[in-house]
Write a sequence for this structure.
């Protein structure tokens, strides 16, 4: 049995901790903040609001079920899921509302009513996306990305052309649809994958299958309930979680990490798994000779967006708002360029509003509403109170116009969160919110490696390594890293016996 330290307590760290502890290791999580969860922490106010600070879209429910199933549980043992119908709403120019139904048959009818013949083409698109999702999840996503030999699999080789790695997502979607609303619906998930649709491999049409066929769900109580369930499982398995415990340094001897310095104290360990920001771990916790990558390497990486978020409490209910609403009255391509090509604060941004109190009355006081406003922006921008307030007024103008009612006079809680906060709270590289962009040259084996090449018993997990950004990939990342770390411990054990 080894004593293992995990840095950070987000989804990937909690996932890894559970697998490692299940295998009999002594696992310690060190978290710099007061509560577990990383970006999925919650704000609980004195007047009764509960805000998810990060993730709000519950897609790929099979990944969550698989995780808890590995320990003999079901998702329902820890939290209740509610299927959203409509799954979400999109707002287009002239205040046109597009409701995305939960039923696939209703979605087909919606497509056909907008573009003749598109229902059949949607079936074809989804059949292709289903193949990518099912084969990808079974054969690719759970790979550690350490060698190309991992992909010498009959199913992968047989279907290599169907993965469309060399085709762009944008051109792929346009083979099936031409209506601007349908294109926006199919392309919007890519905005949060971290690249423009034309720079994202068509492989990621699997996200459309995940969202439009597997459904959009909500964990009652918010994403904090998912973290709460994972943390409960971890503690049940014997994991020790230490909050308010900032890791200051990973100390090595030769090719081994021997201990951590945590708030000035020495913590002896047999191995280390870093679920904190990859760049921060390398450039602030390790010496230069112990790093996988130079600063130049990171500066050349394409990051997924950061974002400006507002947590808003209203002392009134709203009559005409969905759980998820995407404001697409402006040009997606123009906003994408301002994130990825010519980074700057956007002129006419798209943004997103989540109103979980429409589904869950327990996240706001009786008669009140819980709002989460999010605007994707380029990472690394100068963050100021003036900029935040400017975009708050802009988003509220558009939201009030869309709803046809006044909101600002009813605000009884307001908190902004942006680039500087991501850096302060998570040591996030350039204040990114979603990790590394899923471009072709940053996919699978081309992502930062899950193991340290200089320190044998140091591994990484999370959204900056395989398989990528998002909650389900982070959960998977923790499992992959735990497996690789255990293989290393076995190798060391066998060498010691010899």
């Amino acid at each position: 049995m080894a004593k293992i330290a995990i840095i950070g307590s987000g989804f990937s760290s909690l996932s890894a901790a559970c697998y490692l502890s299940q295998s009999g290791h002594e696992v310690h999580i060190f978290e710099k903040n007061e509560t577990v969860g990383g970006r999925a922490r919650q704000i609980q106010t004195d007047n009764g609001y509960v805000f998810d600070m990060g993730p709000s879209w519950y897609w790929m429910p099979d990944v969550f079920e698989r995780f808890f199933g590995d320990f003999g549980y079901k998702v329902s043992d820890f939290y209740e899921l509610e299927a959203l119908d409509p799954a979400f709403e999109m707002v287009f120019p002239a205040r046109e509302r597009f409701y995305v139904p939960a039923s696939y048959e209703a979605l087909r009818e919606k497509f056909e009513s907008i573009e003749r013949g598109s229902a059949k083409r949607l079936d074809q698109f989804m059949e292709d996306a289903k193949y990518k999702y099912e084969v990808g999840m079974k054969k690719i996503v759970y790979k550690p990305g350490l060698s190309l030999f991992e992909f010498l699999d009959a199913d992968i080789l047989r279907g290599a052309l169907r993965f469309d790695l060399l085709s762009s997502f944008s051109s792929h979607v346009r083979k099936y649809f031409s209506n601007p609303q349908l294109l926006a619906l199919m392309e919007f998930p890519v905005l949060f994958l971290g690249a423009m649709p034309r720079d994202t491999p068509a492989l990621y049409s699997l996200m459309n299958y995940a969202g439009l066929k597997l459904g959009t769900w909500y964990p009652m109580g918010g994403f904090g309930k998912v973290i709460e369930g994972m943390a409960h499982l971890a503690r049940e398995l014997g994991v020790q979680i230490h909050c308010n415990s900032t890791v200051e340094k990973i100390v090595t001897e030769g090719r081994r990490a021997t201990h951590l310095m945590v708030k000035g104290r020495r913590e002896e360990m047999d191995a280390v798994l870093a679920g904190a920001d990859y760049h921060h771990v390398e450039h602030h916790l390790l010496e230069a000779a112990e790093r996988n990558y130079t600063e130049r390497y990171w500066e050349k990486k394409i990051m997924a967006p950061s974002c400006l978020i507002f947590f808003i409490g209203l002392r009134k209910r709203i009559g005409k708002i969905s759980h998820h609403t995407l404001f697409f009255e402006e040009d997606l391509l123009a906003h994408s360029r301002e994130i990825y090509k010519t980074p700057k604060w956007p002129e006419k941004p798209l943004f997103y509003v989540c109103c979980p109190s429409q589904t869950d009355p327990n996240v706001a006081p009786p008669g009140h509403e819980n709002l989460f406003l999010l605007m994707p922006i380029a990472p690394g921008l100068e963050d100021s109170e003036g900029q935040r307030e400017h975009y708050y007024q802009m988003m509220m103008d558009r939201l009030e116009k869309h709803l046809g009612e006044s909101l600002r006079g009813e605000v009884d809680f307001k908190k902004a969160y942006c680039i500087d906060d991501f850096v302060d709270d998570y040591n996030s590289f350039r204040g990114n919110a979603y990790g590394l962009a899923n471009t072709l040259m940053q996919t699978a084996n081309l992502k930062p490696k899950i193991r340290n090449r200089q320190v044998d018993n140091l591994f990484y997990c999370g959204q900056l390594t395989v398989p990528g950004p998002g909650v389900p990939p982070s959960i998977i990342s923790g499992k992959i890293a735990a497996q690789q770390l255990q293989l290393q411990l076995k190798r060391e054990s066998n060498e010691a016996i010899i």
The chain has three domains: 3-79+221-301+436-497, 104-214, 302-426. The chain has a mean pLDDT of 95.
